[in-house]
Structure formats: structure tokens, C-alpha cells
Write a structure and sequence with these properties.
By secondary structure, the chain is an alpha+beta fold. It has 3 helices and 3 strands. Strands 1-2-3 form a 3-stranded antiparallel sheet.
Amino acid sequence: FLIFQLIQQILPFQLHLQIQSLMNNVDKNQRWGLPANYSSDSKVYVKNGWLPLGNNYTNAIINSASRVKNSKSDYIVVQMSNEDNTQNDGFDMLNRIGQKVYDKLNQ
């Protein structure tokens, strides 16, 4: 959480709140790497990126940095994927990992 503390010290408070709001309101189709099922008291934040290396979204590089905060846990997960058969295969894999991490940390 050191990076979040550093950001809080550098950025004006209002800008920090705006960034949090943007990361918390990402379109559902672009929220890969997060759990699909999470508790109602969870706040989720995400910043993702992708680069298709082949035609028709094949062989993609995909990355995801996300934070999940609720009454049981507060954690950050950074995932990187390379050379997936398709972009959607990469998204699916990151989603599965995001769900498994959430399930384990919120038992």
C-alpha cells in the first residue's frame, strides 16, 4: 500500500478522490481481473491495459491492477498475461484468478 500512501502525499485530495471514483466506475466489460462475485460491502478499483499482438485480437498482452476493500480484507492484485490464444482467453484467466484470490482472502 506504499504506492497509495505516496500518491496521497503527492496528489491534491480532490484529484485523489476523482481517480478513485474513475477506478471504481469502470464499465463492466472492462473490469477483468476482479472477482465476478463479491460482497455488497466491497469497494473495487481497477486499472487495466491490453495490447493485441496478432490479428483479430489474438496473442494479446494483458495487465490488470486492482484493489478490493471490504470488512474482511483490503488487498491489491497485479496480474500480467502474455501470449494468450485470444484477448478474451486472457481476460477469462485474469477473472478466474481474481475470483480465487477474493474467495481465499474472504473466507
